[in-house]
Write a structure and sequence with these properties.
This protein is an all-alpha fold. It has three helices and no strands. The chain has a domain of 53 residues: Monooxygenase. It starts with a helix and ends in a 7-residue tail after the last helix.
């Protein structure tokens, strides 16, 4: 494996692993109140574009990292949308 590949996989691992604690917290608690739907929408689109870019370049580090990150981000976004738009909240007094 080339040094550039090691750097790419190390960077991909760091950025993907950094996202995991947020995903675990949302999956366990279901709490997305403090998350921005606009931010997660934009982030998920960005990750999908990085994945597409990696596919076009045939870059395994970019592809693997962004598949994992996309699945996590999309899941969080889906929970956020469900919580914000499809879950009835009690009226505030």
């Amino acid at each position: 494996m080339l040094t550039v590949d090691i750097i790419g996989f190390t960077a991909a691992t760091c950025t993907t692993v950094a996202f995991v604690p947020q995903a675990i917290k949302v999956f366990r608690s279901g709490d997305t109140e403090s998350l921005s739907v606009l931010m997660y929408t934009t982030f998920t689109i960005g990750v999908a574009l990085w994945l597409y870019y990696g596919l076009l370049r045939e870059d395994a580090a970019i592809i693997v990292a962004n598949i994992v990150t996309f699945l996590l981000a999309f899941s969080i976004l889906a929970i956020k949308i469900r919580n914000d738009f499809f879950t009835k909240k009690p009226p505030q007094s």
